[in-house]
Specification:
homodimer; alpha/beta; Cobalt-precorrin-4 Transmethylase, domain 1; Methyltransferase, Cobalt-precorrin-4 Transmethylase, Domain 2; 5-stranded mixed β-sheet; about 30% helix; Precorrin_MeTrfase (chains A, B); methyltransferase (chains A, B)
Chain lengths: ~325, ~325
């Protein structure tokens, strides 16, 4: 229920610390911690910024006490205090932002009730680990948590299978712990249904911290590697390669350009969709003379989707549009 | 071919600017720009940090000249200069990191050839846009670029369909431009095969910049909204909700806890996998007496995967493990 007697000035700042080293704190993250009267966080994160906490009330919590952290933040803010709730990485990614809003809504808070809530973004583990291994995230990617403490396994398995099939770069969060050792084995099993056993994998532990460790391996061998609570596992897509100790996913320039000369392939144009981009590909469906079932099998897309496209006439030539930036 | 006469000191720093406001630059990003002799980037990003560039060589490029930017960075670094190649967001996410490595490898560069390459991570658009709308990324999420300039449409379509089916939160990058207007329509079509028309969607433009604009809509109506080159589209999963102007994806606490009392549901334990986590769910498969085909249909998982699990005996009771943090 809303509390109309809330002292003014209370606020909650959900701070993403990034990887945790001071060099990778944003100016706003650092300022938010400085502004705070109270700082609440998992003990490991508190330790990362211990030198910034002089004179502040510090509340250290253990790993599974996320809801408690949110509740204490709200209680302090209702008393008029400025509270920094800290997360490693980005507070929105498997972090404190979601649980905090759930607790706040449950307690009757609204954005107008006198307590301001600010989320300060930071680089998540997938970005920081990627930065250390090269450029694995250059194309479509996803994040999946292997923690089944709050999520049924079939939901996780369905996600793993879908992104393995559709050739995403995949970052596995919470890949393994003392109690949870089977999930990474199942992830490998599901990925091997679709992906080559030699698909590059990077395992990064404690990115940008003293005990940082990077290991390159493959989908086949990753379960033999040292993976723990502080690790992020990055699985490449079917084009990802490792060269000179760097893991790189191509953006696709070779689909359009000859790599050596830099000129476009026949039929392709810089700044324009590929000939197999939406318009060209759709025209190709119509021109093929094939039926929806056959095209669906050929392109590995749902038959009803292909049928819908075939049922729609192609747009007439678009009028010349003004030149504009595109990406 | 490696150039053994490279003057020493040349380096390339791939800097992620985050959303672009100075408050959200990391200390390392700011320091890298300060260290640079030459700063190269798309003209919009150069403008974001114009006040940090006094006395430096500044090279502004247009949107599709990514390979040119990488080539010029390499040429300057070979001449001994410190070069900052800037990207908005995170340099590794659809940014300059991948193209830079591709160009460097093509030119014969190796990490030992005297030119150091550092990637400085930043918060990507998905993190910064999420921070402005609430907490949409609390559960598994992905990023898909709707640009078909370098990627065939069937590849993109297959990815859209897969993550809509598997119930990811989805961030669409490059959703629309003057020339590319059909791809967002196709994304909606594919999503509607799996997801409710009232699925919450947030469209964020120019996050943390003067012309910032946030619009909440639904999957059904999103194609009627103003979407452009500076927009990121965030599509919620089947549990995402919008309340009090905030978009929140639950982490799943209600799977384990009674929301009002905070106590665990019968059969669930704090700090342990759900009863429908991997071990419990696998035991349930065996106990069901059902066949692989039926279980596969029930759980929407591949039949061969279910069959493999049924063929393996369940592990005997694990010995008591020492209590340890888990997430």
């Amino acid at each position: 229920m809303s509390d109309t007697s809330t002292p003014s000035g209370g606020r909650i700042m959900l701070v993403g610390l990034g990887p945790g080293s001071h060099a990778h704190l944003t100016a706003r993250a650092r300022a938010a911690i400085a502004e705070a009267d109270t700082v609440i966080g998992y003990v490991t994160y508190i330790r990362l910024v211990a030198d910034l906490l002089d004179g502040k009330e510090v509340i250290k919590k253990s790993m599974t006490e996320e809801l408690d952290r949110a509740i204490e933040a709200f209680e302090r803010a209702r008393a008029g205090r400025k509270v920094a709730l800290i997360s490693s990485g980005d507070a929105g990614v498997y972090g404190m932002a979601g649980p905090t809003f759930e607790v706040l809504f449950q307690a009757g808070w609204t954005p107008d009730s006198g307590i301001d809530v600010e989320i300060i973004p930071g680089a998540s583990a997938l970005n920081t680990c990627a930065a250390l291994v090269g450029a694995p995230l250059t194309h479509d990617f996803c994040a999946i948590s292997l923690s089944d403490l709050l999520t049924p396994w079939p939901t996780i398995a369905r996600r793993l299978d879908a992104v393995a099939y559709a050739d995403f770069v995949v970052a596995l969060y919470n890949p393994k712990s003392g109690r949870r050792t089977g999930q990474i084995v199942e992830a490998r099993r599901l990925f091997l249904r679709h992906r080559r056993p030699d698909t590059p994998v990077a395992i990064v532990k404690s990115a940008y911290r003293p005990k940082q460790r990077i290991e390159f391996t493959t989908l086949e061998k990753m379960t033999e590697c040292d993976i723990g609570m502080l690790s992020t596992v990055l699985i490449g897509n079917s084009n990802t390669f490792i060269r000179h100790g760097l893991m790189v996913t191509p953006r696709g320039y070779s689909n359009k350009y000859d790599v050596d000369s830099g000129t476009t392939h026949a039929g392709e144009q810089a700044g324009r969709s590929l000939s197999t981009g939406l318009d060209g590909w759709r025209a190709g469906l119509h021109a093929s003379g094939l039926g929806a079932a056959e095209l669906a099998a050929l392109h590995r897309l749902p038959e009803d989707y292909i049928a819908a496209l075939l049922a729609e006439p192609l747009a007439s030539e678009a009028a010349d549009e003004p030149a504009g930036a595109d990406a």
